[in-house]
Amino acid sequence: MSKYEVKNNIFLILFEGIKIYFSNIDKFFLYMLFPVFGQIIGIILSFVLTLGLADKVIAKANSMTSALLMILLLALPGLLIFVKAFWDYMVAYVALNSMTEGAISTGKVYDFQSHNEVATRRTFQYVIFLLAVGILSSIASSIFFIIPGIILWIYFILVFQVFTFEPELSVPDYFKRSFLLVKGKWLSTFFLMAILVFFTIFIITEGVTVVFDYLSLTDKVASLFNFVTYKIPLDLCNQMLTYWHLPIITPDYISKTIFYCILSFVVMGLTLPIRSICWTLWYKNLENSYNIANSKSTRSSAKSKKSRNDDKDI
To answer: Considering the entire predicted model, what is its pTM?
Structure first.
């Protein structure tokens, strides 16, 4: 693995991943800007245009059908921005793996378009693959399958790396290959995932939240979402909560919740390169270990077969 070769140890993987990320942080940050903020801008734009102008549209429309059509047209620009940003975000899941391989061999990250083509030149296969990942994720998140779902997802956590580096495989084979690579290293893979999620999402999100609170910016930023929350009818919900002696929900509370959710999404998106780098390094190491083990097994089988043949000749 050239100058970035590391041993099969999750802490060395983390150290190497962080080093690669911060040595190219400006490029990774710029690369993720539109995929992350484009989704947020698209959703907000759709809500602003539809909620802000819905009353006027309905008042001037000749029928409910024409009113709904006009509202849909108002939401369309934001939806198009969101869809484009979402697609770029999903492309980043494999493009960042390719960038990591470039950083491993050259120490630099460049030519984003060629890395994006890892997914875009196989668009149909990638869409089918994403649908398979989405279906399995939905099943795994079900309350009836959450424990076995987590166990299986750890086995399948390298599927994006397999898609990137083993394009000759089929969609089912991506999952089989990831399973084989993680087999025997499930616990180490689980700890690597837990550490990455904890430090790249939870800790950074909490840190940014503390800064916003210290600068008294949380309420000011959260108030920007009041145009949505003050239109939500909360009376019936609060009546039920009051009956059960539970705290009522206020528009300000919802605004803050939206703010924290957006903040978490931004942190999760901008730190995606760190996680992709670490998973690519982990994939490379597990692949190397798997190939060595298979090579030894093959040589052992060949020697055993030769020995049996020699015995027969005697």
So the answer is: 0.84
